[in-house]
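Example 267, ligand S-adenosylmethionine.
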Amino acid sequence: MTNNKRRLSPYEQNFLRRHGVEPLDCIFNEDIPVEYIVGKAEFYGLTLFVDQSTLIPRVETEELVSLIIGDFGDLATKKKITFIDLGCGSGAIGITLVLELAKRGFSGSAIMTDVSSSALKVAKKNLDHLKKHLEYKNLVVNWEFTLVESDLLSDVSIPACVDFIVSNLPYIPTEKINNLPTSVKNYEPLLSLDGGKDGFSLIYKLLMVLSMNDAIIDTTIYLEVYDEHDEKFISENYPILLRHFEISFILDINKKNRFIKAKKITR
Ligand SMILES: C[S@@+](CC[C@H](N)C(=O)[O-])C[C@H]1O[C@@H](n2cnc3c(N)ncnc32)[C@H](O)[C@@H]1O
């Protein structure tokens, strides 16, 4: 360990102060993310518990939530929604979706899964906190939550009509993990980052599992992906997916390819 004092950015200083830590009291000589110091992260206007078993939810993922709300939030014909948040980590996506949908009058069922039991504990802590919190408990009262420890969908009982599945699976190609900032590669869980050789292994596996599952018919699949996982990448490397799914590619705020929206082609 070096003795270099860490220079905190104004954002980091404000973040620490907002969460009750006076940055001048601390000498940081490691680049641990401030979110792990206070055990909390901000996402879509909420403060969520995080620890080193969970990814710190990112701003791009807030866009994924907005994308889904844009598609489902205004549906006048349907007021009950069932969805799966696969690889939920801290629960950021599933929890904010429930709150945003509930604010728009929806009730329903949220199934949140992760292969990591430690991450699921954090998601449960966030859910329990929400259910007790004055501001949110009336919103979530008509929602049913199921937390499942599962490798992809292997241990999940998929209900008859799932409106959508959302997933932000690890998507960094293995050989690029080492190029990530030390605050990411030394602190965030590898299980949240490493997407295999080309970053698409788990996502491909999930899509193939879904392509073979008869319960998934009219379900929309929303995925966060690496910027290189664009139309060209998929047609060159995974053309089989285009036989099973109609896929749209959506850019993030930085104009980078970031989200996939897929629907099964029914024949
Ligand atoms: C990039 S993180 C996303 C966490 C959270 N959804 C978010 O957006 O902040 C990926 C998550 O997928 C989980 N994961 C990794 N492999 C998985 C698998 N085979 N099945 C289910 N979840 C998996 C990790 O434990 C991690 O929580």
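Summary: The domain at 58-264 is CATH 3.40.50.150 (Rossmann fold).
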